């Protein structure tokens, strides 16, 4: 287990290094610089441009800039926003974190509860109309992005029936629409995986043995079927989380949630390269570390993973 | 012969047929847009802005008084082009990389696949946004930006196919008869991997369509006034309470087209790639 964890840790480090190197290279390939923004009259003055270049250290050799960046990253400093004065990107992201985290946590819990219940129900009622209905719904919802679901929900519940606020943040009512929109895809995915997994477990020997022993159906379900069916759900939680993170970028913009995603998009609109780079790093780090945790958890639950040869 | 059987099996999958019909209709709309569209897509009429659907404007008019139906029809061009052409870029990058990794093995395989892992670890949308800034405007650059990010699945898939095929008996036989590596790749490995690759391409189309819509929605996609469904949603959100139809129709079109390709992909998978059936 220790060897596996060390191996995963090392690999995560390499991925993060690779991601930061790619982001750094791409950011430097973008034509222009922070002084090139529209409406910045001062930027016409070559002296000021020179000063800005020196201030941001853009005149130093690339390797030195990259080294500085990595050093700062190690200290949790994601760089400087080019638009919000000298406000740090870390500062801006911390501002958006509560909203983003609240939204993602609610959406993920919703998806787990609804997805596992629907998937199990579907498997237990295999080939009935309930199963067919859930299967058609989950297949469709997996292929329609939360962004579109969000628009439809907004039109129905906020515009036509005026039951919920269309956009904004601050009250529990404001959370409902974006959370539903964000939760649709993971719910549908979890429902599909759960259905397949429960069906698989139902036909295994230990379940048949439990039946033969005459255990009540309820005990068989909770002790033998569900517990074993949950493992595959854990595997998709990593990618799931990654999806929630990048999915929330668009959803937050749509519903005007003051989270990291919306701040990031504002950075995109303003061509705030500092914020874009810091934001990208933050997202990539969040996803990679979650994957690391999920992998290690998974190996703890299922010993076969630890001993499997690298694929 | 084989094709006949496959087509027959595809025809039995009702959802796949529905998907195919929807795609065919959209393709016809895209090609014949100049003839079908009742109005020119960019003609503004300030005396008729934000009108609800009516007989003269079946989907209403937008904030600049342009006919929404005409813009939807022209918008199919962008969505289909992005969806389909991006797949070619993805295949051009992903298949050679996957083949190389699968054939070379060991160090080289490791190197390619680890690089693939790193690109895969990036949140798609963010990497596409970075590429958008580097390449700038144009529809062609949009294909490139989405393609450069989305090839990882195809590369992994191709590698897996090659790995499972290269030790099979007919390949060993071919090797024993002195066939060159290139010959084996071209005549044995790639043709036998085509099924899963085509399926993956079909599933890749809706993802690219969504990527375009999302980019246009956040203002770095297709530049106005060219009609694109994502861009129409962006413009429509300004008037969501007065004219909800402005975002309803493009949103529905995106959903319908994405579903159509997914259903077709499901059908194709059952026919071309029965092993990976869920």
Extract low-pLDDT stretches of chain B: none
Helix percent of chain A reads: over 70%
Fraction of residues in β-strands of chain A: under 5%
Please give the radius of gyration of chain A in angstroms.
24 Å
Q: Could you tell me how far the N terminus lies from the C terminus of chain A, measured between alpha carbons in angstroms?
A: 17 Å
Which sequence of SSEs, written as H and E, runs from N to C of chain A?
HHHHHHHHHHHH
Beta-strand level of the residues of chain B, as a percent range?
Answer: under 5%
Report the structural category of chain A.
mainly alpha
Which ranges of chain A are low-confidence, i.e. pLDDT below 50, for 5 or more consecutive residues?
none
Report on the architecture of this protein.
- Chain A is mainly α.
- Helices cover 77% and strands 0% of the residues of chain A.
- Chain A contains 12 helices and no strands.
- In chain A, helix 1 (2-29) packs antiparallel against helix 11 and helix 10 runs antiparallel to helix 11 (273-301).
- The radius of gyration of chain A is 24 Å and the shape is flat.
- By secondary structure, chain B is mostly helical.
- In chain B, helix 5 (106-121) packs antiparallel against helix 8.
- The longest helix of chain B has 37 residues, at 68-104.
- Chain B is elongated.
- The interface between A and B is large, with 48 and 41 residues.
Can you lay out the helices and strands and say which pair or pack?
The complex is a heterodimer of chains A (311) and B (278).
Chain A: H1 2-29, H2 46-55, H3 62-74, H4 89-124, H5 129-143, H6 146-160, H7 172-202, H8 205-212, H9 217-254, H10 260-269, H11 273-301, H12 303-307
Helix pairs in contact in A: 1-11, 4-5, 4-7, 4-9, 4-10, 5-7, 6-7, 6-9, 7-9, 8-9, 9-10, 9-11, 10-11
Chain B: H1 2-12, H2 14-31, H3 33-36, H4 68-104, H5 106-121, H6 124-135, H7 139-150, H8 152-166, H9 169-176, H10 181-217, H11 229-236, H12 245-272
Helix pairs in contact in B: 1-12, 2-4, 2-12, 4-5, 4-7, 4-8, 4-10, 5-8, 6-7, 7-10, 8-10, 9-10, 10-11, 10-12, 11-12
